[in-house]
Specification:
There is one protein chain. The chain is of the alpha+beta class. A six-stranded antiparallel sheet has the order 2-1-24-23-22-21, with helices on one face. The chain has a four-stranded antiparallel sheet with strand order 3-27-26-25. Residues 82-156 form the SMP-30/Gluconolactonase/LRE-like region domain.
């Protein structure tokens, strides 16, 4: 009986479960994670980071009893003890949190000499001294670990500073020698390097000036007076700076197109690859690289680089050399959730790998935590970078268990197998990663070993084949003199027109050696047939499809199963048939003597080099490495040039033109093709518009009477 008292409570609990269900995974992870393969195609990934919490919910109440909060938080810094410092620009203070993210204290908020005004940067050195870029007061303030002001740094008095130099510090770092590196707003000279006594040391990390082609031409041809009247092209101003444990400075510059992220050595030179950093667009249809504006970077103890793209509100993580590991979007979708960003301004990493992101528009500071997937990726990448190749294997394999399409994991295993000398395994992994160059390196090693073991057998086999070919050819020529002299036929092949097709095939092969004579024969004797022309067209299509399927992976690093026969055939047939039709139309108006059949059959004969050599070249490419690619590419270009020349010869002979008339005909044919395609495009576009118009008009008549 007493148990019945719990029935209402049980019913209420069940109802509460339905009314307030637990948050779904999609609500927990409000952004998609993705990466790109070696060919630039976007691939979806497991979530890289999970939103955990917002910092600042425990700030003390204001004097009037209202809740306090951030106002335009600009910068975030994490010291060696995982204490967090936020440059709360709008409130004119530094907000400090402990290692657990709990509020600790304010710095620089009290009236007096240490009062801050619109601070935009904060840095804490190894001794615990707190440096603040007091932007509104055009100075840098140094506080003790207890928060007491120690000194201020203003624009140094130096003859080396330009007279018009404005000292408006926004970001700063301090190196192991206690030198300050200050980012000053609008300073194109680079960062200002100051000593502890506020003495000017140098400008550091200046960006290069990159002239546009127009600027270069102006400076090349203009007179001295004209050049002096040109406006100066200035390098971009550095936006942000951070420093890693080894003392390397990383800068971001949003006002330039390349080298937006730099890793500066002690001489101020960038040692990162210039073109590695990019922001992929999460397009599902294939490669798409967006423009970017890197606003801030954070560097882990292992050298992994995390960056914010202010243009797309995307957070990206790269390895120490700038190779993309993964990225995820945190763009604001007007739903206030942890991890959704509207204007990310600052970035920092804790020792545990947690990510802190400030947003100076929503006035929020987000705490994101790496998932097991991203932890494994970072662990494997770090181990390999440190030379611990064997230890990196297990994390990479666990990554593939979570996401088998992650090309970076296949790439890591490929490099590991290469180090071991497992060439076949390395080739398979490089193929999974779509890395043609790595595949080529492994293939070169395996091919060399294979040739060393079988060199004698290969040499004997080649000599034997050559001798056998010579003997067979000699025997055939003795027994079949008529066939050797081009007359008669092979017994048994005279039925069903096979003999005529055989003669036409022989003529088709002869076009490679004596094209003018063959085209004259086609014109005068009308020996070409529609049947053979269509057979050649089918052979050309099969050759092109075979090229897509059987070209060596080094030169065509795409999975064969992704080849689309319909698209391949369309790309080949449309230009080819357009040429035939337009060339015939032009020739009828421009004194051409060839019929439509002559143009079609002659074009098929002119394509003999492409039909005969495309597939053998594709098969031959499987035995070449990337360093030998010049042979393959030269042969490909030679076939195309050869085919183009035969097409020109065909036009001249079939239509009985001279050289000038041939050139005019070819140019008019190409122009006609362009006009034809444009007309088809306009027709299709208008047809769709007309169809939509009729459909909407019908809806109006039906539903509105």
């Amino acid at each position: 009986m007493n148990a019945l008292r719990f029935v209402p409570l049980l019913v209420l609990a069940v109802l509460a479960a339905f009314v307030n269900p637990a948050p779904a995974a999609a609500d927990t992870v409000p952004f998609a994670s993705y990466s790109v393969d070696e060919q630039g195609a976007v691939i979806g990934l497991n979530p890289a980071y999970l939103p955990v919490r917002l910092l600042g919910n425990d700030l003390p109440l204001k004097a009037d009893g209202k809740p306090d909060g951030f106002k335009n938080p600009e910068d975030v810094f994490v010291d060696g003890h995982d204490r967090i410092y936020i440059a709360d620009r709008g409130n004119g203070r530094i907000v400090q949190f402990d290692e657990n993210g709990a509020f600790a204290r304010y710095i620089g908020h009290l009236p007096g000499k240490g009062k801050l005004k619109e601070p935009e940067g904060v840095f804490v050195d190894r001794a615990g001294s707190i440096y603040v870029a007091d932007t509104g007061n055009s100075r840098i303030v140094r506080y003790s670990p207890e928060g007491e002001m120690l000194r201020e740094y203003k624009a140094p008095d130096s003859a080396y500073l330009p007279k018009d130099y404005r000292f408006v510090p926004s970001k700063l770092v301090v190196d192991a020698r206690d030198n300050l590196y200050v980012v000053s707003k609008g300073s194109y000279q680079g960062m200002l390097q100051l000593g502890q006594n506020n003495e000017f040391l140098s400008f550091y990390g200046k960006n290069r000036v990159k002239l546009s082609p127009v600027d270069r031409l102006q400076r090349l041809f203009y007179t001295k007076e004209q050049r002096e009247r040109l406006s100066d092209v200035l390098p971009g101003s550095i936006t942000n700076v951070t420093i890693n444990a080894q003392g390397f400075l990383y800068t971001t510059t949003m006002s330039i197109d390349t080298e937006q992220i730099k890793k500066l050595n002690y001489a101020g030179q960038n040692i990162l690859p210039e073109k590695e950093f990019f922001v992929p667009s999460p397009a599902k249809s294939g490669p798409a690289i967006a423009s970017y504006l890197f606003r801030d970077v954070a560097v882990s103890a292992q050298g992994m680089i995390t960056a914010i793209d202010a243009k797309t509100n995307t957070i990206l993580q790269y390895d120490a050399q700038g190779k993309l590991l993964y990225t995820f979007e945190g763009e604001d979708d007007r739903v206030l959730r942890i991890g959704k960003l509207k204007s990310p301004s600052g970035l920092a990493l804790t020792s545990k790998g947690d990510l802190l992101v400030t947003d100076n528009t929503t006035n929020l500071v987000h705490l994101l935590r790496p998932t097991p997937f991203s932890k494994l990726v970072l662990e494997a990448t770090s181990l390999y970078a440190e030379g611990k190749y064997e230890q990196s294997e297990e994390p990479w394999r666990r990554v593939l268990q979570l996401n088998e399409s992650y090309s970076r994991a296949h790439l890591g295993l490929a490099k590991l197998s290469f180090k071991r000398g497992d060439w076949d395994v390395s080739m398979a992994e490089y193929k999974q990663a779509l890395d043609g160059q790595g595949y080529s390196d492994a293939f070169w090693q395996m091919r060399m070993l294979w040739l060393q073991k079988r060199f004698t057998l290969i040499a004997v086999s080649l000599v034997s084949l050559a001798v056998a070919f010579w003997l067979v050819r000699r025997a055939i020529l003795r027994r079949m003199p008529a066939a050797a002299n081009g007359g008669g036929g092979i017994p048994g092949f005279t039925r069903f027109g096979v003999a005529s097709l055989g003669r036409e095939a022989a003529r088709f092969g002869s076009v490679l050696k004596r094209p003018l004579a063959v085209f004259e024969e086609l014109r005068d004797s009308k020996t070409g047939t529609w049947t053979f022309g269509f057979l050649v067209l089918v052979a050309i299509l099969l050759s092109r499809l075979g090229e897509a399927l059987f070209t060596g992976f080094v030169f065509h690093p795409f999975p064969a199963h992704l080849a689309d026969p319909f698209r391949i055939g369309t790309v080949l047939l449309v230009p080819l048939l357009s040429w035939v039709i337009c060339n015939y139309l032009v020739s009828t108006l421009y004194r051409g003597e060839g019929t439509f059949k002559d143009v079609f059959v002659g074009t098929m004969y002119a394509l003999a080099p492409y039909a005969l050599f495309t597939l053998p070249l594709a098969l031959f490419s499987n035995g070449l490495t990337a360093s030998e690619g010049v042979i393959y590419h030269f042969a490909q270009k030679a076939v195309l040039v050869w085919t183009a020349l035969l097409l020109v010869f065909k036009v001249q002979i079939i239509h009985n033109y001279d050289v000038k008339e041939t050139a005019v005909n070819v140019l008019l044919t190409l122009a006609t093709i362009v006009v034809l395609w444009f007309a088809i495009f306009v027709h299709v576009t208008l047809s769709f518009d007309l169809r939509d118009f009729v459909a909407k008009l019908w809806e109006e008549l039906i539903y509105r009477g």
